[in-house]
Amino acid sequence: MPSAVKPPQTLYDKVFQDHIVEEKQDGTILLYIDRHLVHEVTSPQAFEGLRNASRKVRRPDCTLATVDHNIPTASRKNLTTTEKFIDEADSRIQCVTLEDNVKAFDLTYFGLDDKRQGIVHIIGPEQGFTLPATTVVCGDSHTSTHGAFGALAFGIGTSEVEHVLATQTLITRRSKNMKVQVDGELAPGVGSKDIILYVIGQIGTAGGTGAVIEFCGSAIRGLSMEARMSICNMSIEGGARAGMVAPDQTTFEYLKNRPLAPKPDSAEWKKAVNYWSTLKSDEDANWDIEVYIDAKDIAPTVSWGTSPQDVIPITGVVPGPDDFQDPVKKEACKRALKYMGLTAGTPMQEIPLDKIFIGSCTNARIEDLRSAARIVEGKKIAKNLKRAMIVPGSGLVKRQAESEGLDQIFIDAGFEWREAGCSMCLGMNPDILSPGERCASTSNRNFEGRQGAGGRTHLMSPAMAAAAAIVGNLADVRKLAPPSASAAKGSPKVELDAHVEDISSDEDLDRIIDAPADAPPQTHGDAPPGATAGMPKFETLRGYAAPFDVGNIDTDAIIPKQFLKTIKRSGLGVALFHAWRYEAGTEKEDASFILNQDPYRNSKILVCTGPNFGCGSSREHAPWALLDFGIKCIIAPSYGDIFFNNTFKNGMLPLRITDQAVLEKIAAEAKAGKEIEVDLPNQTIRDADGNELAKFDVEEFRKHCLVNGLDDIGLTMGSVDKIELHEAKRTREWPWLDGSGYLARHGRGPVKVEAVPVKKTNRGEVVGEPLEW
Ligand SMILES: CC(C)[C@H](C(=O)O)[C@@H](O)C(=O)O
Ligand code: SF4
């Protein structure tokens, strides 16, 4: 890992540096978090943790919550309460639990009855909650989206959500610096989604592991903010924790008049823009990894396989195992072709589709809908399609599109015009693919089962998905659209009126209330406020190790989305590797799966010889499921960053063994059905007879916490004086961060929007007051 940073610095170094609360000798850093977005899937256990330890939310004014993953996208005309609106019991419980939590902890919340509700990564920027030079986190891997503003934005697990709620900080370390420079003119029909799919195809899904990517170069500079967001959004698919773009005039223009940004004519705005303008990487900054791309090499791009790195120009043919040298990649290709129902050599444009999904935090902003509408206008979707959906990213995007008549263009063509939410991006709500169905999707993940068990996903841009809808096959947008301008450029500027209207209306003013100056901690238990929950200690672990030899085992595979609807941490062992463990659509064990065989049913360790274990989503349900099954230690060459962190937070030990020969030696013991022993104090792995198999490295602080069973929220509570010092500096130097967007308008101190406006109906129920629809 890189050591303490001295000038020259990168953009990432500068933002990181400005948020350090405390730095330890071993490089462990307590980092201040400016903005925390919260959604229903990854927060219930975090709030429960706060309650159990009688902790309060440290900065309600810097926390914004919404529901997005679980909610139906059907019309809300008859919406009365969330409870009545959501049919599916587990989804309903999760959403209602968030509503209870935002009330109990006094948080700003955009619920189903609020037109500002939407996908968490769409509403943050839309409201100006996301600002340059801030640290932004959310219990969601696509938090990287917000890096488009020059923010350091990354996904975290539920334990870290709890840590941020309680302390407004995170314990972390410096990342590597990676530069992806894209220069030159984009070809006609090529947009930001093609850029990022192409980049991931080049660097691979583990290419950015351990790094923060800065996207730069003339092609990136020429993009709108929305296009930059689509690029940063998928940094996580390239393995990076975060993606960033240096803020510039395009950024400042986008932020003007956003409800939570400083007011454009104020002294604060000038001060902010001056500061934001300094946030550029120094000319001679050091990069750990550099990638240079010529924009003209990028064609309209689609994915063919089950990993976001499996991409190809639309003019290409389906690749086959012979196209890959690396044996792991050959195997992955065979498996992907089988899952996708494709034959090597088939022209991509001859692949027929069943469904079209235009939506998700990657591509459901107004410019995305405009670019799709331009292709669709005056045409009809192909007859072979079973369903074509447009799911706007937020209520405000939906209203804006309707005011431009885009809804009618889509409806006339045969699309469904839905309400905002994550929808078929991951199918936690009723919008899913049936087994075997093939979908052209503007989302970001094409993992097995991602959009529904057995469903097949092809990733692409909104314009390409629109073209596919008209043709009924994967299609080349250039054949349907006048190839005058690239899809990412030349879009009309986003209209801001709809975005600011809410906050200036009387109704909204009424819904804004003062935060109590000295809010007493919410007490829900008997534990003292600084209490440390504690974890079981990890010292020596001996047991069977289950061998895996595939790479890129994603957290969707470790635990599929249908099991994320719990509000508890426990009982997830049955869901572990569900799609692999049971025969399709049944609860019958698949005897060929390793964990269904003896002695691996009783594994305590998992050995994976392929790279990038636990990539993808931030769901802490993945380590919870492993732990509940009995697996406490994983041995692999590399990991998805968020998964890696999440395991430690649960008292588990993920070990990086990068020497492939050593790894194979450990895997051989595992395959022979022999026990192995992991000795953390001595950092040694031994065979069943006590012979040393490997030594391993582990960060000092993490080892200390594991061996002593320490909960790091309790530890951070001990640094509260330093957190207060940082907050004082923050108020002095960056006053616009103290909830000042609303403060500037209403002059009443840090404020928040009341969670759900309540009123009594004539049936005597207390409900959220629906806004106009
Ligand atoms: C549910 C959430 C944890 C997850 C994520 O972290 O990405 C989801 O948004 C996804 O896209 O898989
Ligand atoms: S990737 Fe999909 S599921 Fe995850 S936050 Fe974005 S829209 Fe929602």
UniProtKB/TrEMBL annotation:
<dbReference type="Pfam" id="PF00330">
    <property type="entry name" value="Aconitase"/>
</dbReference>
<protein>
    <recommendedName>
        <fullName>3-isopropylmalate dehydratase</fullName>
        <ecNumber>4.2.1.33</ecNumber>
    </recommendedName>
</protein>
<dbReference type="GO" id="GO:0003861">
    <property type="term" value="F:3-isopropylmalate dehydratase activity"/>
</dbReference>
<keyword id="KW-0004">4Fe-4S</keyword>
<dbReference type="InterPro" id="IPR012235">
    <property type="entry name" value="3-IsopropMal_deHydtase_ssu/lsu"/>
</dbReference>
<comment type="function">
    <text>Catalyzes the isomerization between 2-isopropylmalate and 3-isopropylmalate, via the formation of 2-isopropylmaleate.</text>
</comment>
<keyword id="KW-0411">Iron-sulfur</keyword>
<dbReference type="InterPro" id="IPR036008">
    <property type="entry name" value="Aconitase_4Fe-4S_dom"/>
</dbReference>
<dbReference type="InterPro" id="IPR018136">
    <property type="entry name" value="Aconitase_4Fe-4S_BS"/>
</dbReference>
<feature type="domain" description="Aconitase/3-isopropylmalate dehydratase large subunit alpha/beta/alpha">
    <location>
        <begin position="13"/>
        <end position="472"/>
    </location>
</feature>
<dbReference type="InterPro" id="IPR001030">
    <property type="entry name" value="Acoase/IPM_deHydtase_lsu_aba"/>
</dbReference>
<dbReference type="InterPro" id="IPR033941">
    <property type="entry name" value="IPMI_cat"/>
</dbReference>
<dbReference type="GO" id="GO:0009098">
    <property type="term" value="P:L-leucine biosynthetic process"/>
</dbReference>
<keyword id="KW-0028">Amino-acid biosynthesis</keyword>
<dbReference type="InterPro" id="IPR050067">
    <property type="entry name" value="IPM_dehydratase_rel_enz"/>
</dbReference>
<feature type="domain" description="Aconitase A/isopropylmalate dehydratase small subunit swivel">
    <location>
        <begin position="535"/>
        <end position="659"/>
    </location>
</feature>
<dbReference type="Pfam" id="PF00694">
    <property type="entry name" value="Aconitase_C"/>
</dbReference>
<dbReference type="InterPro" id="IPR033940">
    <property type="entry name" value="IPMI_Swivel"/>
</dbReference>
<keyword id="KW-0100">Branched-chain amino acid biosynthesis</keyword>
<keyword id="KW-0432">Leucine biosynthesis</keyword>
<keyword id="KW-0408">Iron</keyword>
<keyword id="KW-0479">Metal-binding</keyword>
<keyword id="KW-0456">Lyase</keyword>
<dbReference type="GO" id="GO:0051539">
    <property type="term" value="F:4 iron, 4 sulfur cluster binding"/>
</dbReference>
<dbReference type="InterPro" id="IPR004430">
    <property type="entry name" value="3-IsopropMal_deHydase_lsu"/>
</dbReference>
<dbReference type="InterPro" id="IPR015928">
    <property type="entry name" value="Aconitase/3IPM_dehydase_swvl"/>
</dbReference>
<dbReference type="InterPro" id="IPR000573">
    <property type="entry name" value="AconitaseA/IPMdHydase_ssu_swvl"/>
</dbReference>
<dbReference type="GO" id="GO:0046872">
    <property type="term" value="F:metal ion binding"/>
</dbReference>
<dbReference type="InterPro" id="IPR004431">
    <property type="entry name" value="3-IsopropMal_deHydase_ssu"/>
</dbReference>
<dbReference type="InterPro" id="IPR015931">
    <property type="entry name" value="Acnase/IPM_dHydase_lsu_aba_1/3"/>
</dbReference>
<comment type="pathway">
    <text>Amino-acid biosynthesis; L-leucine biosynthesis; L-leucine from 3-methyl-2-oxobutanoate: step 2/4.</text>
</comment>
<dbReference type="GO" id="GO:0009316">
    <property type="term" value="C:3-isopropylmalate dehydratase complex"/>
</dbReference>
<comment type="similarity">
    <text>Belongs to the aconitase/IPM isomerase family.</text>
</comment>
